[in-house]
């Protein structure tokens, strides 16, 4: 079977932006200075020895905006299905974020909305795509709004549970379509919009199109100017699909420290470097539970909402293979994780075990 990258991309079709290292260094402190027990490495080693952290590539944990725990490992990696070989990961090693990209696009939409460049969530979806008058004339689709895109509650047919090597996977089918946007908008309607959450990379693709159309910039360029540079984020890559479109759903590559910077900005209610980077009201709206997943987690505007027994409620971004950004406002904690367990059924376990068995139990007091 062809790899995901062979299906989705042209050879070498990736965009690199930014400098090779983060623009400003993050301060590093000891675990004790951050209010954690000093035995984090022992906890980590015990979990690794028990085989509970297999496939982890990088960990960056911040409290009070400062790094108190940062570790990298060695292991095989891939980018969109193309093997990269055995990698000795470090602070400057770019890593696939996969669907963490979706949550970052959600932030970009809020920035563009604040600038009056994209439609508000309550606006009709098909009105934003006048090139498809036949779809807009469908009464059933007239009920679709931008908000249904942001919450992945379109009620249309979409299935990403199949392997990403299969043309029957909806994201792959979208990438192979002659017109990716028509493909997403023309899916059969199965339920009333707003009633059910269905994981849908096509929804993020629509957001990326609205951002590009409204700002007049390619998605990576707007991300660099509006979010990455203000946060001091260094080099990034954005993989393109077969038609040259940067993948809004899963194409971003970034180092873990810079992913943690996004979490730090969230804890600061959208501020960084003395300026408001993401509107605080957009963050508040993004973290409202607007849909319920089968496992009990909530979903806002492209962000997951959950709770661990220790640490309390978190807001997070989740990507295939074990990519994670967890943010705990109640304890001022950010954890960014990269891993290489792509497409594996139990891929969720290593990052969850890391949080539950290593980091949160070490919180002092």
From TrEMBL:
<dbReference type="InterPro" id="IPR012338">
    <property type="entry name" value="Beta-lactam/transpept-like"/>
</dbReference>
<dbReference type="InterPro" id="IPR006311">
    <property type="entry name" value="TAT_signal"/>
</dbReference>
<keyword id="KW-0732">Signal</keyword>
<dbReference type="Pfam" id="PF00144">
    <property type="entry name" value="Beta-lactamase"/>
</dbReference>
<dbReference type="InterPro" id="IPR001466">
    <property type="entry name" value="Beta-lactam-related"/>
</dbReference>
<feature type="signal peptide">
    <location>
        <begin position="1"/>
        <end position="25"/>
    </location>
</feature>
<dbReference type="InterPro" id="IPR050789">
    <property type="entry name" value="Diverse_Enzym_Activities"/>
</dbReference>
<feature type="domain" description="Beta-lactamase-related">
    <location>
        <begin position="46"/>
        <end position="338"/>
    </location>
</feature>
<protein>
    <submittedName>
        <fullName>CubicO group peptidase (Beta-lactamase class C family)</fullName>
    </submittedName>
</protein>
């Amino acid at each position: 079977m062809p790899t995901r990258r062979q299906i989705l991309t042209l050879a070498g079709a990736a965009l690199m932006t930014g400098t090779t290292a983060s623009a400003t260094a993050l301060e590093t402190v000891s675990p004790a200075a951050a209010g954690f027990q000093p035995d984090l490495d022992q906890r980590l080693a015990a979990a690794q020895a028990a085989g509970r952290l297999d496939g982890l590539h990088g960990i960056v944990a911040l409290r009070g905006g400062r790094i108190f725990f940062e570790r990298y490992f060695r292991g095989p990696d891939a980018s969109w299905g193309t093997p990269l070989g055995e990698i000795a990961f470090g602070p400057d090693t770019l890593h696939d974020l996969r669907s963490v990209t979706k949550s970052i696009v959600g932030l970009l939409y809020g920035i563009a909305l604040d600038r009056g460049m994209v439609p508000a969530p309550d606006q009709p979806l098909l009105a934003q795509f006048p090139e498809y008058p036949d779809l807009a004339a469908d009464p059933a689709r007239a009920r679709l709004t931008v908000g249904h895109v942001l919450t992945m509650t379109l009620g249309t047919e979409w299935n990403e549970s199949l392997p990403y090597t299969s043309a029957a996977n909806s994201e792959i089918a979208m990438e192979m379509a002659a017109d990716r946007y028509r493909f997403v908008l023309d899916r059969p309607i199965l339920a009333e919009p707003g009633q059910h959450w269905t994981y849908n990379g096509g929804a993020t693709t629509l957001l990326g199109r609205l951002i590009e159309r409204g700002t007049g910039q390619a998605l990576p360029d707007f991300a660099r100017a509006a979010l990455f540079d203000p946060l001091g984020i260094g080099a990034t890559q954005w993989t393109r699909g077969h038609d040259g479109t940067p993948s809004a759903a899963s194409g971003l590559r970034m180092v873990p420290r810079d992913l943690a910077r996004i979490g730090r900005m969230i804890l600061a209610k959208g501020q960084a470097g003395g300026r408001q980077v993401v509107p605080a009201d957009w963050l508040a709206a993004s973290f409202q539970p607007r849909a319920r997943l089968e496992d009990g987690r909530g979903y806002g505007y492209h962000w997951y909402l959950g709770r661990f027994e220790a640490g309390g409620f978190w807001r997070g971004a989740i990507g295939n293979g074990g990519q994670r950004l967890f943010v705990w406002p109640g304890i001022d904690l950010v954890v960014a994780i990269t891993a290489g367990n792509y497409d594996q059924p139990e891929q969720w376990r290593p990052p969850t075990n890391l949080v539950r068995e290593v980091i949160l139990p070490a919180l002092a007091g």
